[in-house]
Amino acid sequence: MHRIALCTLLLRLAPLLLSTAHGVRNVSRRTFELDYSHDRFLKDGLPFRYISGSIHYFRIPRFYWKDRLLKMKMAGLNAIQMYVPWNFHEPQPGRYEFSGDRDVEYFIKLAHELGLLVILRPGPYICAEWDMGGLPAWLLEKKFIVLRSSDPDYLAAVDKWLAVLLPKLKPLLYQNGGPIITVQVENEYGSYFACDYNYLRFLAHRFRYHLGNDVILFTTDGANEILLKCGTLQGLYATVDFGTGRNITEAFLIQRKFEPKGPLINSEFYTGWLDHWGKPHVTVDAEIVADALYNLLTLGANVNLYMFIGGTNFAYWNGANTPYSAQPTSYDYDAPLSEAGDLTKKYFALRNVIQKFNEVPEGLIPPSTPKYAYGNVALRKFKTVAEALDILCPSGPVKSLYPLSFLQVKQYFGYVLYRTTLPQDCSGPTPIFSSSSNGVHDRAYVSVDGVPQGILDRHIMIPLDIEGKAGATLDILVENMGRVNYGTFINDSKGLISYMTLNSTILTNWTIFPLDTEAVARSHLGAWETPDKGHYGENITSTLPTFYVGNFSIPSGIPDLPQDTFISFHGWVKGQVWINGFNLGRYWPKQGPQMTLFVPKNILSTSAPNNITILELESSPCRDRNPELCTVEFVDSPVFI
To answer: What number is the average pLDDT over the span 81-92?
Structure first.
């Protein structure tokens, strides 16, 4: 009888249970949509406006991702905007890297855990002042490839990449339970010369194929009608970008010409600006940015603050603009959060504006991380580049009648040494130059039989006078200072890209050494320690490109060490620096504006001495055999000029 009664009860309740379950499914179904009739977004059926900030996970150590994201949330942001740089994840064809600092899925999930939505910008081109705009240099191995176009070789590579990346991100779409609300297709395409709608159609098709039809796909271009004509495509929601100096109403009228209805969106509202070597550090007044943000939000616009934190171009990842001008290691951008994640006056000024429109989370804002000045660290000369070729180029050199580019010897970043012999006596100053106007990409350090001769630079279209006897060894160490990231000339080849001429004679029979500085810095640090503690250098004003090494220990007995720090280069001119094998980036205090490099604490060790390796390319302070001069200094604050 009990079983019969139970069955009867379940039969009576079944319609109610099914109805309730159906109702739960409707309520819990996540949607993010364009509401054209009311010029807004709908999130789960309710009106929504995002106030977002840009953050580049690839410019911030994974160790600090949570700290930076939490500070963004506490500023009142409800979303973040992020690029995905293709070259960061596929450094060589078919070799994919998605772990550690490259774990983009973890980064997005972390944002989700903190309650931040995500605006995804997966390229394939991103600009971002990043080497080659995020495109991998190996694409240029196809000599006549037309990047960002429907060139078959380019499309085949893009198709393969998107088939790897986008399926990883599909589960993280908002509709699938993740935080990604919108996805950008390409980036500021209207600013590129190709204006290839077939390329945009190809991308739109592949994005839909991998991500589905529910996600909002959009484009971003400068608020200029000409730019939007080539940068937009039917089916992709058109947005604009502009900074504090632009008339807001005028800028959005441009968007309205292409999107008569729908939300107003400034996808890149500039909080600061980028730097270049040799130019003053750029700043934008906090109050000017705050006032402009207030006006944007008053109009009901959706806005992304570019950048909210800039971060660092570690290693060789910085880009460059044309006429060729490389960006420094720091990507501080004068953003609301500094390169080191510190809270700034601008952070609080923008937070005060945001809280007039959105509810700002309660609770304590994570403080700026403490910094520590570890002081001076003595270095000593190890070897010149020429003396260290056995460990820098263990597989041996490449022989060629004429110079080969970096790509032709499978060297994508860093340095290549080109070597030949002088075919004639140069008893007096004899000009050496490239056969084209700027055939040295980007900067070259010239020596004859170990005697420095000077520098060739793609900026300087004049020959370099050298001296030496017939048969003397001519070395030209070429530095790749970063590929162009914006505009027509992103197909930026590196190395000696034309013949080299001595007087009227073309130099031939080159021995070319691709230098693996990264492997050396990681694996040979211990082996580089030699008993020659007194070898500091020579009493000369310029030196051959030379490695210097040293170490320091974290002080014991002081709580909470290690801490972040900054390395300063008094008396050093230009080069690269590694700590414990981690490539911090380029230093060039002689040019500025960046005088110090950020050192995150996660690369420092308390259990063993911390190794420092410096490759000084031009001139070190390690002269007169004076150990007090041959130092770098760790300080507790950054310096820009």
So the answer is: 98
pLDDT of residue 177 exceeding 90: yes
Q: Is pLDDT above 60 for 17?
A: no
User: Which two three-digit tokens encode residue 75?
Assistant: 């500023």
> Rounded to the nearest 10 degrees, what angle do helices 345-354 and 286-298 cross at?
20
Q: Which amino acid is at 621?
A: P
Mean pLDDT of the region 28-45? 95
Annotated catalytic sites, by residue? 188, 268
Q: What are phi and psi of 560, to 5 degrees?
A: 65, 20
HSE, CB side, 13 Å, CA atoms: give it for residue 431. 8
Sheet holding 426-434, edge to edge: 464-468, 426-434, 500-502, 505-506
Query: DSSP class of residue 290?
Result: H
CB-CB contact of 108 with 83 (8 Å): no
For residue 192, give the nearest of 504, 476, 616, 487 by alpha carbon: 487
Q: Is the peptide bond before 593 cis (omega within 30 degrees of 0)?
A: yes
pLDDT digits (tens, 9 = 90+) for 514-571: 999 998 888 755 555 544 444 444 544 568 999 999 999 999 888 899 999 999 999 9
For Cα atoms 115, 117, 121, give the angle at the middle one, nearest 5 degrees: 145
Task: For the chain, give the mean pLDDT.
Answer: 92
Helix (H, G, I), strand (E, B) or coil at 522: helix
